[in-house]
Amino acid sequence: MFKYFIIKLFKSIPVFIIGISLVFFIIHLSPGSPVTKYLSPQISTDVQNQIIKNFGLDQPILHRYFKWIRNIFRFDFGYSLNNGIPVKNIIKVALVPTLLLSFCSLFWGLIFGTLIGIVAALKKNTFTDRIITSFMMFLYSTPSFWIGLLLLSAFAIKLHLFPSSQIISIFHNEFTFFQKIGDYISHLTLPVITMSLPISALFYKYTRTSMIDVMKSDYILAAKARGISHGKIIFKYALRNALLPNISILGLIIPVMFSGTVTIEVIFSLPGLGRTLVHAALARDYPVILGGSILAFIAVIISNIIADILYVVVDPRIHKEN
User: Fold this and answer.
1) Domain limits at 169?
2) Per-residue DSSP letters for 222-242?
3) How much is the average pLDDT of 232-259?
4) Which of 61, 188, 190, 210 is the most exposed place for a label (fewest CB within 10 A)?
């Protein structure tokens, strides 16, 4: 199995290179320039050319591309054109809030969606099933930014139950350890709820459908005929196979969440990677945009490999077929 996953990892390298290369050329060939804000009619032509040269934008695009690729494999992502800070440092600081938001949202979305999906499948075609399905489809079709604005207006602005922005309080460093944990939780509650509700609706949809199909399987009917308890049939036999579609969704949803955090981080003013990339795009800060794109492609590759590993853990027959 180890050999199989190593092969998949090496097969992902061309996809990674092609993906980041497309991003590089799209950004550099699009209209506009990051040096525009430094130029003005009062500056002489020589000074303007020197500014462009300092940013390395006077070189042919292919020369810039191969230099950039070479630096990437040396883990050198360059410096921000906006403030001169190394891109690695910018991403390192911004990545922590994004990871906290993403994985907390994924965890609660997966747990809530799976449990509700099991309940709806076992109550198929009943009033409970119809109510749950209607509510979850409402969440599935509702834009996350609208949910975020409603929660922000109700619980932060009107009721003052949760902070409306940032990930920590001003006096966070003066808190005790448990107070710091509580501070993080209070700041992340609304963003996590905003992001996890549509995710839970997605997991609910696949869990319910898969659970209904599994409960009709011959081996489930045989287990019932043998007198095995209902709870054991559900959690030991049915649930394991019903979770397979969720694993495939898990491999696809992790990269999507990185793009989804952009909206959430802007609404709640979280200092995460999504908000950082929005500001970089507005300032045409090429190195920061490309650094974030590299991270997104790595997330795609790793999440798909993790999904393959989980597939084999849940159903070892998949490894034998490969």
Assistant:
1) 93-270
2) HHHHTT--HHHIIIIIIHHHH
3) 75
4) 61
pLDDT at 204: 92
How many domains are contained in the chain?
A: 1
pLDDT score recorded for residue 142: 86
Residues 6+ apart with CB under 8 A from 293: 19, 20, 23
The pTM (predicted TM-score) of the whole model is 0.81
Residue 249 lies in a domain: yes
- pLDDT tens, position by position, 161-176: 998 888 888 888 888 8
Residue 152 lies in a domain: yes
User: Per-residue pLDDT for 4 more than 70?
Assistant: no
Tens digits of residue pLDDT in 280-322: 888 888 889 899 888 888 887 887 777 777 766 665 555 555 5
Helix (H), strand (E) at residue 59: none
Beta strands, E only, 24-151: none
pLDDT of residue 30: 79
Specify if 318 maps to a domain. Answer: no
Distance separating alpha carbons of residues 258 and 113, to the nearest angstrom: 20
Count other C-beta atoms under 10 Å from residue 43's C-beta.
12
Long-range CB contact pairs, 191-194, < 8 A, 24+: 191/101, 191/105, 191/148, 191/264, 191/265, 191/267, 191/268, 191/270, 192/101, 192/104, 192/105, 192/108, 193/147, 193/151, 194/144, 194/147, 194/148, 194/151, 194/264, 194/267, 194/268
Alpha helices (runs of H) in 161-272, residue ranges in sequence order: 177-215, 218-225, 230-232, 239-242, 244-267
